Amino acid sequence: MRLSPSLALALALAACGGRPAPNPGLEEDLTQQDAAVRDDAGPNTLCTGTTARMEVNGVSPPVMAAGRMQYLDCCDAAEIVLTATDGSGSRLVVSWRHQAGRGPDLPVSLDLAHLPEGWSVVLYAGCSPSEGCSDPNDTVETGLSGTLSIAGDYSTYVMSLCLTAQEQPDSPHPVLHSARVWAPSVHAETPTPR
After folding, report:
1. pLDDT for 126-181, tens place per residue?
2. 92: which strand partners?
3. pTM, whole model, 2 decimals?
């Protein structure tokens, strides 16, 4: 039996306790940053609207986006996980880190092609090392472009991502030849004890 994408999303939200409680300050910061992301994106882009989208090697499956906290001593860190809902198994994970005391602090809107000192962004295909996966299908650390906006603090992040990755002729990739991602207002938060 195959679930419809909307039913699968409803079940996933119910199992996880639903969407985090609204935080007007975080949402306001990110709404302003989202406007800048869309304005910079230009016409004919993936990065508009309120629905997450991804395109991998020219294929655009329907996706569900989720945020995940990373707990590190050195850094603020989180991930945006995009999972295809069409049964194809396509999955991208965008992981970011901000080293304490270096570079701009939150809230921030980052140019992925020119990250400030103390910041890193990595695109994984399939899974990420934070999940205990030692061998993602592919890893892209250079050649990223677009914008990542982040608001919040060590317990809650609200993130929006407009990302493009294109393999370079001198550096071919085994899986990700091209990727584009739009993930607006993705929440990652520290779980509350039950």
Report:
1. 998 888 888 899 999 999 999 999 999 888 999 999 999 998 888 888 889 999 99
2. 82, 125
3. 0.76
Q: Are 44 and 72 in contact (CB under 8 A)?
A: no
Residues with Cβ within 8 Å of residue 41, at least 6 apart in sequence: 47, 48, 146, 147, 162
Per DSSP, 128 falls in state -
Burial letters for 99-129: b for 16+ Cβ neighbours within 10 Å, e otherwise?
A: eeeeeeebbbbbebeebeebbebbbbbbbbe
Question: What are the backbone angles phi and psi of residue 137, rounded to the nearest 5°?
Answer: -60, -35
Give yes or no for a contact between 163 and 146, defined as CB atoms under 8 angstroms apart.
yes
Cα–Cα distance, 125 to 7 (Å, whole number): 25
The residue written with tokens 């989208």 in the block is 53
Name, in order, each residue with C-beta under 8 angstroms of 185's C-beta and a sequence gap of 6 or more: 27, 30, 34, 50, 158, 159, 160
